[in-house]
């Protein structure tokens, strides 16, 4: 990986957690970093272009915001890209990713309640012709994952 620009590094270090909850979060982030909002947006675009950034957004405690479940599909290899693209079109889907396993497509499905999830699971099965493996969370573990860039070039 190429060297990170100084602002890119500061942005990652400071805002892996705790993005400002306000009407203008990018402006608040820029102020905290001592740069312009445009410089901050340019940094985010650079990081995204390098695939160093995949998402900016909140992580909600799912039990307070409705219902969610982890879902896995066993997709024939020749259909994987097509099915993944279709699954990603559902606004209730996030964290859609491929795994090296018989169940090779995994995603999180969210909705206002369990009944909504059940309807979506049935729709996905009808839509794809594949039976979803529904893996609702039984226990919640809070892992506040972040990475220090201190030893990176």
What does this structure look like?
Keywords: Lyase. InterPro entries: AsnC_trans_reg2 (IPR040523), HTH-Siroheme_Decarb (IPR050684), NirdL-like_HTH (IPR053953). Residues 8-50 form the Siroheme decarboxylase NirL-like HTH domain. Belongs to the Ahb/Nir family. With 153 residues, this protein is of the alpha+beta class. The protein has two domains: 6-49, no CATH class; 65-135, Alpha-Beta Plaits. The chain contains six helices and four strands. It has helices at residues 6-15, 25-33, 37-49, 62-65, 80-88, 114-128; strands at residues 67-73, 93-98, 105-111, 133-135. Strand 2 and strand 3 form a beta hairpin. Helix 2 (25-33) crosses helix 3 (37-49). 14% of the residues are buried. The model has no long low-confidence stretch (mean pLDDT 88).
Query: What is the CATH architecture assignment of the largest domain?
Result: 2-Layer Sandwich
Described by the principal axes of the CA atoms, the overall outline is: elongated
Q: Report the span from N to C terminus.
A: 9 Å
Give a quick account of the main beta sheet: strands, pairing sense, barrel closure: 4 strands, antiparallel
Number of domains: 2
């Amino acid at each position: 990986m190429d060297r990170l620009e100084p602002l890119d590094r500061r942005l990652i270090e400071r805002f892996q957690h705790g993005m400002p909850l306000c009407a203008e979060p990018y402006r608040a982030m820029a102020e905290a970093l001592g740069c312009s909002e445009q410089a901050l947006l340019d940094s985010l675009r650079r990081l995204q272009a390098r695939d160093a950034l995949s998402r900016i957004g909140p992580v909600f405690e799912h039990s307070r915001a409705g219902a969610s479940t982890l879902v896995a599909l066993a997709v024939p290899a020749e259909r994987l890209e097509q099915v993944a693209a279709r699954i990603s079109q559902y606004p209730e889907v996030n964290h859609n990713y491929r795994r090296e396993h018989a169940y090779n497509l995994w995603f999180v499905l969210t909705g206002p309640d369990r009944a909504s999830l059940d309807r979506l699971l049935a729709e996905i099965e009808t839509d794809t012709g594949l039976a979803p493996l529904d893996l609702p969370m039984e226990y919640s573990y809070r892992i506040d994952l972040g990475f220090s860039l201190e030893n990176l070039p």
